[in-house]
Amino acid sequence: MKINKLSIAVVFLSGSMFYAQETKQDTIIKEKKIDGVVIQGSSNKKTETAVLGEQKKAVIQKQAVSAEEISRKGISNVEQGLTKVTGITTVEGRGLFVRGLEERYNYLLINGLGSPSNNPFQKIIALKQFPTDVVGKLNIYKTFNSNLYGDFAGATFDIETLTIDKPFTKVEFSVGVNTLSTFRDNFKVSEGAQGINGYLGLNSRDRRLPNEVRDSRPNTYNFNKSESLNSFKDSWNVDNIKSLPNTSIGFTTVQKVKAGETGNIGFLFSLNQGSKFSYREGANNQYRDNGQIIELSNLLDKKSYVYELESSVLFGTAYKNKGTNINLNAIYLQNSANIIEDFTGFKNFSVEDKRFFRTNQQDVSRFLNLQLTASQKLGERHLFKAGGSYVMNNYSQPDRKIFELTYPQDFRNAAFSYGGNNLIRQYLDVDGRFYASAFGEYSVLLGDKGERKDYPMQLSVGYNGFTDVRKNSYRFIFGTPKGLNTPVNIDVDNIQSTLENSINNDRLFYKEDSDAYSYLSNIYQFVNAGYLNFDYKPNDSWDILIGGRFENDMRIIRYNKPGDATRLNLTNNKNYFLPSLSIKKALNNKNNLRFSVSKTVTRPILIETMPIEYINPDNTTVRGNENISNSENYNIDLKWEYFPTNKEMFAVNLFAKRIDNAIEKSIAPSGNASGVVITFYNADRATLAGVELEGILSLGRISESLNKFTLGANATFMYTDVKRSEEQLKTERPNLPGFTDDQLHKRGLQGAAPYTINADLKYEYKNSKNLSSTLSVVYNVSGSKIYAVGGSGTDNYYEKPFHQLDFVYQNQITKNWNVKLGIQNILNSKYRVELGDNSYYPVKTNGNYALNNYFNGVNFNFTVGYTF
Predict the structure, then answer these.
(1) Is the separation of the CB atoms in 431 and 468 below 8 Å?
(2) What is the pLDDT of residue 91?
(3) DSSP 8-state code for residue 222
(4) Which end of the chain has fewer surrounding CB within 10 Å, N or C?
(5) What are the TonB-dependent receptor plug domain coordinates in residue numbering (predicted)?
(6) Cβ 100 vs Cβ 80: under 8 Å
(7) How far apart are CA 457 and CA 784, in angstroms?
(8) Cα separation, 496 vs 499, whole angstroms
(9) In sequence order, which residues have a C-beta less than 8 Å from that of residue 461 and are 6 or more positions away?
(10) Between the CA of residue 673 and those of 346, 595, 670, what are the distances in Å?
């Protein structure tokens, strides 16, 4: 054969690669002529480079954390992954803050479908429960587009579960120690928390409300002797153990089979289980007006022992054939936290009465999300997408046991009196009775492509919405004295036998004393929206996306006031028109200029609307505000991006927001003159303005010897100002003669940080076998922000900067084996919330301004994985 040319083309288009090469002629006898050969492969769309390219191309401000970056930085859960994005920080169990905005301003999607929270105290799922082994990519939308839910001010997060690209099986085991918590003697856990039932979270079954009252309205039921002894399956005792290292194990397998000539079916199964011991000790104080002088009403030391167990299961199956994609996912998350909290000190200004009280509780959440999504292309121009999900969701604090006594000299022989609030069992249950989410969209490409890559116009019309129904129950059972109430002696760690003896001797019985009406409430949320998007590309350098969303939001709250049989129904039914405009101008192939403007809404967190008074033993009450309103947000962004290479990027983003009816948390004296109440109000208006700076730089630019180093850094600086509502004025206004509202101190938005800084330095090395080793140092901090607005003469309470420095080393030893070493919280900063120094009344606290504080310790974590 005579070969004139062998041609293999090189083109990168939509993730496919074509390689090209030219070879001079040769002659081979009796062979046929071959004019060209094309070899096609697939690129990985989940690499950091691919994700950066997607960010560059998108018309809206969309950032992402790739599967590659998740692995490189040793990120073990979704919450950690999202904190690596500009302007996002996590704050000690209170979720994610975006641009300094509280978590209530965020929204979560899973594979494009809405998802409810599995915790009434948080807006979205506790994302630390979501393991990254099953994550393909984390998408973060910081500007609004009408196909997103209107609940948007900080960001919308979309978790894309792992796509079925190639078969593999992976087993991973992790072990970790904490300098403060691990191998600690006398670590306290509730009796029954360990063992296989505790490990699987099944011990919560023993803590359920007793059968005698479970399915009936409270009626001051008195448990007889037999019932008091036998109806409560969970013990008051605690075990003192040596805390073990934290462990986790994960198994993930992906398999793929052919289906016909061009189709394939994939299967994904992932199982993860982890256990963790945490110990903290620090202040837990309160500050109140005591005759127009701010004094410590509580001065408490708090020790917290948490034994936490997390489980997750994901099953997925997918069918793909040319323009057809069908995906079925089942996601199960369970978290069980067994918590012992010991308090010592005085409360309610009773300085001479030093007390000891203990809380023994379990927080359990179970979340099952079933999803079906599909898309179908018809020719080159038409695309249909649809999906639906059903969620079973429950959060409970079953049998939260609290007992209190005068601080003893001997904790094994302490004097204890029945009666009052000295012996309480609380039962909180937030039952997600029904949640369903759905979307449907039709897109058509219009115009003529000509020589361009894309069609000049795309029109999309669609629907998305959800229904969320919750039943909330909060009940109390008290240990009640019978006959002569004389003190008994107890061992505080082994109180159960003493209580049983008192019951047998007719000195004690249990009695339900829940309010017969206000114990139960129902919250119904219905959101339905239709939207229209029009994307116009007049040429290759302009991209204009205009959208409109019409959203109906109905919230119904059914509840009773304490002691009132009249059932109240609060119905808030509002229609919102939410327009959006995004414009991208590619100045050249390396520079983009973006502009966006939109209107959105913010819905409150569940606890912010629940009409209950959640009571803590330190005289703190969390009170939902059933009259809270949605916020309405007006957003504007202007961003410049520069991409010097496909691995580097620099960006400056100016943004501003006006939030009408901004929701804020406040701490004010309780109405019963004992303790404080944490509640929530709408501000009249909040104004925000800020700048985001971001850069990813290869240090090889500085010196060839540094070409394996990459520096990433981002920072957000923000100014906020709040105009108070009348409700807030009543709470914040001091009782001073002649004081006027314009004398109130100017303040920013609660939860908004004046700055956030994230940075990471990466070193990557590949050996002769192309196996990589990476080292990353990651740092983040956010500025002092208002934790809660103060009231009645006090300044606000401020969450102080918390500096976090982490180190991650990862080494692909062989094709199959990999190891990771992570050191988190190297600086071991103290977490602090403090009273500000600008109260309206004199402050006499001997220099003590700590609302609460504690250290977390340094975490060392080692992980080994094997991939088949």
Answers:
(1) no
(2) 61
(3) B
(4) C
(5) 58-153
(6) no
(7) 46
(8) 5
(9) 441, 442, 530, 531, 532, 533
(10) 16, 52, 5
Phi, psi of 383 (to 5 degrees): -140, 130
pLDDT tens for 607-637 read 999 998 899 999 999 999 999 999 999 999 9
Rounded CA gap, 505 and 489, in Å? 15
Distance from the Cα of residue 204 to its chain's centroid: 23
Q: pLDDT band for position 725 (50/70/90)?
A: very high
Q: What is the pLDDT of residues 249-262, one digit of tens each?
A: 999 898 999 988 88
CA-CA distance, 242 to 182, in Å (whole number)?
8
Q: What are the structure tokens assigned to 697, written together?
A: 């730089």
Confidence of residue 23 (pLDDT cuts 50, 70, 90): very low
Kind plus residue range of the DSSP H or E element containing 153: none
Q: Rounded to whole angstroms, how far apart are CA atoms 79 and 108?
A: 12
pLDDT higher at 95 or 798? 798
Q: How confident is the model at residue 642 (pLDDT cuts 50, 70, 90)?
A: very high
Q: First and final CA of the chain: distance in angstroms? A: 44
Kindly report each contact of residues 724-729 with a partner whose C-beta sits within 8 Å and lies 24 or more positions away, as own/partner: 724/683, 724/684, 725/681, 725/682, 725/683, 725/684, 727/681, 727/682, 728/664, 728/666, 728/681, 728/683, 728/789
Q: What is the Cα–Cα distance from 664 to 687, expressed in whole angstroms?
A: 14
Residue type, 565: A
Least reliable range by pLDDT among 5-9, 237-241, 499-503, 801-805: 5-9
Amino acid in position 206:
D
CB atoms within 10 A of CB 726: 10
Query: Comparing C-alpha atoms, which of 162, 155, 139, 149 is closest to residue 58?
Result: 139
Tokens matching residue 586: 């590619």
Model confidence pLDDT, tens digit, residues 578-610: 999 999 999 998 999 999 999 999 999 999 999
What distances in angstroms separate CA 272 from CA 173, 491, 505, one per listed residue? 10, 38, 48
Bridge partner residues of 641 (DSSP): 592, 651
Cβ atoms within 10 Å of 842's Cβ, excluding its own = 10
Q: What is the pLDDT of residues 813-830, one digit of tens each?
A: 998 999 999 999 999 999
Around Cβ 69, how many Cβ atoms within 10 Å? 22
- Residue 473: CB atoms within 10 Å: 18
